[in-house]
From TrEMBL:
<dbReference type="GO" id="GO:0033754">
    <property type="term" value="F:indoleamine 2,3-dioxygenase activity"/>
</dbReference>
<keyword id="KW-0479">Metal-binding</keyword>
<keyword id="KW-0408">Iron</keyword>
<dbReference type="InterPro" id="IPR000898">
    <property type="entry name" value="Indolamine_dOase"/>
</dbReference>
<dbReference type="GO" id="GO:0019441">
    <property type="term" value="P:L-tryptophan catabolic process to kynurenine"/>
</dbReference>
<dbReference type="GO" id="GO:0005737">
    <property type="term" value="C:cytoplasm"/>
</dbReference>
<dbReference type="GO" id="GO:0034354">
    <property type="term" value="P:'de novo' NAD+ biosynthetic process from L-tryptophan"/>
</dbReference>
<dbReference type="GO" id="GO:0046872">
    <property type="term" value="F:metal ion binding"/>
</dbReference>
<dbReference type="Pfam" id="PF01231">
    <property type="entry name" value="IDO"/>
</dbReference>
<dbReference type="GO" id="GO:0020037">
    <property type="term" value="F:heme binding"/>
</dbReference>
<feature type="binding site" description="proximal binding residue">
    <location>
        <position position="388"/>
    </location>
    <ligand>
        <name>heme b</name>
    </ligand>
</feature>
<comment type="similarity">
    <text>Belongs to the indoleamine 2,3-dioxygenase family.</text>
</comment>
<protein>
    <recommendedName>
        <fullName>Indoleamine 2,3-dioxygenase</fullName>
    </recommendedName>
</protein>
<dbReference type="InterPro" id="IPR037217">
    <property type="entry name" value="Trp/Indoleamine_2_3_dOase-like"/>
</dbReference>
<keyword id="KW-0349">Heme</keyword>
<feature type="region of interest" description="Disordered">
    <location>
        <begin position="409"/>
        <end position="443"/>
    </location>
</feature>
Length: 471
């Protein structure tokens, strides 16, 4: 069994906590310094084999099945039902032999959470969802060991889900062209592409963390601060953030919006957002201490759970209003514990770089090179958020509006179908209706309803970033 992952570097007498104390590696940022384990040891082969059986069969989620009917739907449902029966019969495997072994625990978390998503989302819409003991109990135990949410998170599908494209490069630091994801839920290249964008941003972002970390340390140390060096670091940080934006925009080349919306998104829906309003039941949860509390963290994963952007914000001293604070307080519950502690330590510290730059602006005016360099970095963050808004519009807002329109049309057709002339008189709007068209109508409306709020929040974060410039 491999030993626990140690921080990239130890800290020598540093007065303040350093990134390395929080498993934030110099050239890897929030990615683990070693390639995530591709498979668990033989003792847990049953989990791996059962997951393989799910991924190889390319199941359709219940939400996708709503668009099918007749024999094709029946075949899909039977296929997934046979797999769920296998999972029901699986024994509850002990995790005792991987306690303290971070790589194994992370792989176990990924494998178990992916199986939970397959299990829940292939359950037909007319049935209740009960995650069997064989998944719930080890998942809760692994999550307790890791101090991590017992649900699929960005940490699972991005940070701890990569391998080298070319295995000969394994000893090197991963590069953006030699990295790929290990597992996907939908089996689409688009999902792999989506995770790749996150991985590449994490790798690139590590450079900015290093530059901002060094500047913060120098300012904090306080004697003989080299303002030119801080200026250079900020200028280099701006370049990195601009590259992050370019990487983010490659999403348009790697992920087709309709595949994201129709084939990937349904697998990533959280237990608190079931399309049919079902409450997920977790079989055997009472066997694990503190499970009720843990099972409050079951929301859909998003890259908003990455610590990267909030950490850059915190280093640059971007203001947090109540909305941003409550967003961050929610998503930090889904981050790796050490990363969350690192982010918190930065959020709680005074805005070191910003205060320093404000001091220079007072002394020498806002044309001082360090002030100009700082403002450029802040503007680059704002521009990154502009780009993210474009992505959210393309991948969520436009498709959800399209879906709502289709549903409205379908609902109109179905209301013709159920006219008294057709001899049917039931009210088809009730929950649990198995009519395909109405299933769509029930889901699309709330999603579209949430769009203005989503846009308001994201635009608010963007505007607040712009207001951080020192004037
Ligand atoms: C297809 C690609 C993407 C889509 C559809 C998407 C969608 C979203 C959505 C819906 C939210 C709001 C989350 C919530 O309310 O819980 C969000 C937030 C966020 N996302 Fe993305 N996202 C994508 C890619 C990325 C990537 C690659 C990153 C960078 C690692 C990222 C970083 C963020 C951040 C930092 C937030 C928090 C809001 C902010 O700080 O401005 N997203 N995203």
């Amino acid at each position: 069994m491999s030993s626990q992952i140690l921080p990239y570097e130890s800290v020598n007498g540093s007065t303040t906590a350093a990134p390395q104390d929080f498993q934030v590696a110099r050239r890897m940022g929030f990615l683990p310094p070693q390639m995530p384990l591709p498979r668990l040891p033989a003792e847990w082969e049953e989990w791996e084999a059962t997951l393989d059986a799910a991924t190889s069969q390319r199941f359709k989620a219940a939400e996708q099945l709503a668009a099918l009917d007749g024999p094709q739907k029946f075949v899909e449902e039977e296929k997934a039902s046979a797999w769920r029966k296998l999972v029901d019969k699986m024994p509850v495997l002990s995790i005792d032999n991987i306690k303290g072994c971070e790589r194994e625990l992370r792989r176990a978390h990924l494998v178990l959470t992916f199986m939970v998503q397959f299990y829940a989302h292939t359950t037909p819409s007319t049935e209740s969802i009960t995650i069997p003991r064989s998944l719930t109990v080890p998942l809760l135990r692994v999550s307790r060991e890791l101090n991590h949410a017992p649900f699929v998170t960005y940490s699972d599908h991005d940070l701890h889900n990569w391998s080298f494209k070319d295995p000969r490069g394994q000893d090197a630091i991963p590069m953006s062209d030699n990295i790929q994801s290990q597992l996907t839920l939908s089996g689409t290249t688009d999902e792999a592409g989506m995770y790749l964008v996150g991985l590449r941003m994490e790798l690139k972002g590590a450079e900015a963390l290093e530059l901002l970390g060094r500047s913060t340390k120098e300012i904090e140390a306080g004697n003989n601060i080299d303002v030119d060096r801080i200026t250079t670091h900020l200028t280099q940080t701006t370049k990195v953030i601009q590259e992050l934006k370019s990487i983010l925009m490659t999403t348009k080349e790697l992920v087709r919006p309709e595949i994201f919306f129709n084939d990937i998104r349904p697998w990533l829906v959280g237990a608190d957002a079931d399309k049919w309003g079902r409450k997920w039941v977790w079989g055997g949860k009472e066997e694990v201490e503190n499970s009720e509390q843990m099972l409050t963290k079951v929301s859909s994963p998003t890259a908003g759970q990455s610590p990267l952007i909030p950490t850059l914000d915190a280093y640059l001293g971007v203001e947090e209003d109540d909305s941003k604070r409550s967003f961050l307080d929610r998503v930090r519950g889904y981050m790796d514990r050490q990363h969350e502690e690192y982010l918190q330590s930065l959020r709680l510290r005074k805005k070191i770089i910003r205060s320093f730059v404000q001091g220079i602006a007072k002394e020498r005016g806002t044309n001082a090179p360090v002030v100009v360099a700082y403002n450029a970095a802040v503007q680059a963050m704002k521009s990154l958020r502009d780009a993210h808004l474009v992505i959210v519009t393309l991948y969520i807002i436009i498709p959800s509006r399209k879906m709502a329109k289709t549903s409205e049309k379908s609902a109109r057709v179905s209301s013709v179908d159920i006219s008294p002339a057709s001899g049917k008189t039931e009210d088809c709007s009730h929950e649990g209706s198995s009519g395909t068209n109405n299933e769509h109508a029930g889901e699309a409306a709330p999603m579209v309803d949430q769009v203005p709020e989503l846009l308001k929040i994201l635009k608010g974060f963007r505007d607040q970033t712009g207001q951080t410039c020192v004037e």
